[in-house]
Amino acid sequence: MARLEGKVALVTGAARGMGEATARLLVEQGAKVVLADILDEVGQKVADDLGESAIYVHLDVTDKAQWQAAVEAAGQLGQLNVLVNNAAVLIHKTIMDTTEDDFMFVTRINQLGVFLGMQSVFEAMKAAGGGSIINISSIDGLQSKNSLLAYTASKWAVRGMTKTAALEMGKYNIRVNSVHPGGVYTDMHGKDFMTREQADAGYSWQALPRVGMPREVAAVTAFLASDEASYSTASEFKVDGGWNAGAINEMLPQL
């Protein structure tokens, strides 16, 4: 029996990048998946490629009515028991250059979208007898760096909301965890103008001296979606190549 046989998952931001990699891996492992995004043509193409185990829906994660429609669409595949809140945006601006509109744009998608997602799937997961919500935060939900004020604020919020939701939903056998990727080679990272080798060079200082790949993050998400993670909730799962451990200092002895 496949690891995720019988699971029905809803993945946001599923048209490309980590969302696409996640949707593909979940299907490979036996799940049926609703791919949700605003990139309709690209998202539909991915769903078509995945065949009968996948459908595509348009979803602006800031719109509660569209969330409700996406959850209803999942009912075509069975009882919804996995949500991957992956959709996100990133803006690089200093604190003084960040406008109120910039801040709220990031906050609405990265933070409000996660809140609405958790709220929208609750009744369906409760009816299914439980489920797993995986909120994709970031290494910047554990630390920060310059030019990421709005993004970091939103990703710390995702980390905090995850814990509150886990406390409230646990008695219904709904687990809620956050995943914290480091640098991952996607369009958000600069894949459209940067080679893999160029991306790797930016991580020479960390324990695993290379950029991460979307499927490596998806693998952790798939574990959390599975019954193998049945006693994991309110936890933070890093997929960061050792970024958070610190940096290798070339002036000190090394192996």
Write the layout of secondary structure elements.
Layout lengths: L7 E5 L4 H12 L3 E6 L2 H11 L3 E5 L5 H11 L7 E4 L14 H29 L2 E6 L12 H21 L4 E8 L14 H6 L12 H12 L10 E4 L16
Parallel strand pairs: 1-2, 1-4, 2-3, 4-5, 5-6, 6-7
Helix pairs in contact: 1-7, 3-4, 4-5
The gist of it:
This protein is α/β, with parallel strands linked by helices.
Q: How far is the N terminus from the C terminus?
A: 43 Å
Number of domains: 1
Strand adjacency order, main sheet: 3-2-1-4-5-6-7
The CATH topology comes to Rossmann fold
User: Which shape, going by the Cα principal axes?
Assistant: globular
Structure explained in plain terms:
With 255 residues, the chain is an alpha/beta fold. It has one domain (8-239): 3-Layer(aba) Sandwich (Rossmann fold). Helix content is 40%, strand content 15%. It is built from seven helices and seven strands. The chain has a seven-stranded parallel β-sheet with strand order 3-2-1-4-5-6-7, with helices on both faces. Helix 1 crosses helix 7 (214-225) and helix 3 packs parallel to helix 4. The longest helix is centred in the middle third of the chain and has 29 residues, at 100-128. The termini are far apart. The model has no long low-confidence stretch (mean pLDDT 97). This is Glucose 1-dehydrogenase. It comes from Parahaliea aestuarii. Pfam families: adh_short_C2. InterPro entries: NAD(P)-bd_dom_sf (IPR036291), Sc_DH/Rdtase_CS (IPR020904), SDR_fam (IPR002347). Belongs to the short-chain dehydrogenases/reductases (SDR) family.
